[in-house]
Amino acid sequence: AIQMTQSPSSLSASVGDRVTITCRASLGIRNELGWYQQKPGTAPKLLIYAASNLESGVPSRFSGSGSGTDFTLTISSLQPEDFGTYYCLHDHNYPLTFGPGTKVDIK
Amino acid sequence: EVQLVESGGGLVQPGGSLRLSCAASGFTFSSVYMNWVRQAPGKGLEWVATIREDGSEKYYVDSVWGRFTISRDNANNSLSLQMNSLRAEDTAVYYCARDRGYCSGGTCYAVFDYWGQGTLVTVSS
């Protein structure tokens, strides 16, 4: 099974900061990766699919990039409502695998 | 409006069984893949199972293979997860998630765009 890692595991940033989260796959997965945001006590929310496609309704400050084994989720200007945990998910083949998550706090 | 509503969670003893259901509405259920994803208390997300639109293909994470069965009833817009031989490590909130899919350049991608609210399964004596 393809293993996914994320870094950092957590971060604290100020409103307006540029935030970058990295996801790495143990094998090349082309661009078969999505990003999800989860707030405490709620279901995950889709942000990005196919590595760089912004889901409808998601603010444009979110962007995704990468291909192969290395991927990035960027929040260009962090907002108070962006707190939560961010997960990558590869869909290159089965079994699908989520990354361990990156917890984002607002300073 | 797309809605996914899980039910069937609860407390079960190790070795026991439980059947989760997910009632879908607001979209053409028979046209999409469906999934189960779980989250153990305080832990990250874990994909559990996927079923094709017509139920002809099913996929599972290794840890539930042979114990869990995903199924769907397209006539009644419902998804199920039959869980047998439950273990303490199966304790989690279980979410059903719609995969609307996205295809481009000959590749199709998983797009989990709608999720239910989750149902808690606790395996304990």
Helix proportion range of chain A: under 10%
The number of helical elements of chain B comes to 0
Describe the largest sheet of chain A.
7 strands, mixed
**Multimeric status of the protein:** heterodimer
Based on Cα principal axes, name the global outline of chain B.
globular
Structural class of chain A: mainly beta
What is the mean pLDDT of chain B?
Answer: 97
Rg on CA atoms of chain A, Å: 13 Å
Number of strands of chain A: 11
Distance between the termini of chain B: 40 Å
* Low-pLDDT segments, ≥5 res of chain B: none
Which chains make the largest contact?
A-B, 27 and 24 residues
Instruction: Note the overall shape of chain A.
Output: globular
Low-pLDDT sequence parts of chain A: none
Description:
The complex is a heterodimer of chains A (107) and B (125). Chain A is mainly beta and 107 residues long. Chain A has no helices and eleven strands. In chain A, the strands form two sheets. In chain A, strands 2, 4, 5, 6, 9, 10 and 11 form a seven-stranded mixed beta sheet that branches. A four-stranded antiparallel beta sheet of chain A has the order 1-3-8-7, with no helix packed on it. In chain A, a hairpin with a 6-residue loop joins β9 and β10. Chain A is globular. The model of chain A has no long low-confidence stretch (mean pLDDT 98). Chain B has 125 residues and is mainly β. In chain B, 0% of the residues lie in helices and 54% in strands. Chain B is built from no helices and 13 strands. In chain B, strands 2, 4, 5, 6, 9, 12 and 13 form a seven-stranded mixed beta sheet that branches. The radius of gyration of chain B is 14 Å and the shape is globular. Classes of the chains: A mainly beta (107), B mainly beta (125).
